[in-house]
Amino acid sequence: MWGASLTVRRLNWWRRGQRHLLLAGASGILIEGIFLLLPPGSIAFRLSIALAYAGMAFLCCSLVIGPWRALHGRPIRVSTDFRRDIGIWAALLGLVHVVFGLQVHMGGQMRLYFFFPADQPHPFPLRFDAFGFANYTGLGVTLVLLLLLGLSNDFSLRILGARRWKALQRWNYAGFLLMATHGGAYQWLETRSLPFVGLLRSMVLAVAAAQIVGFRWMRAKVNHKTGEGESNL
Questions:
Q1: pTM of the model
Q2: What does each C-alpha distance from 81 to 15, 27, 214 come to in angstroms?
Q3: Distances (CA, A) of 27 to 9, 30, 98, 110, 232
Q4: Which domain range does residue 122 map to?
Q5: d(CA 231, CA 114)
Q6: Which of 7, 56, 113, 200 is most deeply packed, by most CB within 10 A?
Q7: How many Å apart are CA 212 and CA 203, to the nearest integer?
Q8: Using only C-alpha atoms, what is the Rg of the chain?
Q9: How far apart (Å, rounded) are the C-alpha atoms in residues 156 and 167?
Q10: Which residues face 126 on adjacent strands?
């Protein structure tokens, strides 16, 4: 029995290793494609944008998997390796985006992303302008991504239990909303080109539509089961 269990675990890790290689390849293709679509300029800026859109694409995929499984009659599990691995890459890409993004403005002085410069005295030092709003929403996304990355393992699931783990994991919805807001704010600040504005909106609408359809399908299924139970009384 122990030998069979060890074989299953090894097979599972082998499959996950292959999946991570595929996800790494897909990440590279996405980043390179978006990078080449951007106009010539700062390497840090272009990498920051490419990583941001690639990371959001992976996060969108992780949020669509649940509704897709529900609509196809697949069991809804608390966690699956496939969804978890996609979430890991979404978090990694988003965090690397933060590293490059903080080099684009303010000469790399990270303090100025969140506080007004010393030569601009304000009664309240925290930035409350549009630039500050964009950065604070980005900070919120970063914290959520770190949380999700910390949850993306069996150890966390065992320690927290399914209910608490899922409650924390649902912060991915807040992270997605913050990411969309952060991206929209920077698009407005930097007057991004129409294709990138359309890409962001398309991803947001796709996730919203999938979640709405999945929620309605699940509610209809629950109501149907409830109705059958009442009719059998």
A1: 0.84
A2: 10, 18, 21
A3: 26, 5, 16, 27, 52
A4: 27-218
A5: 60
A6: 56
A7: 14
A8: 21
A9: 13
A10: 115
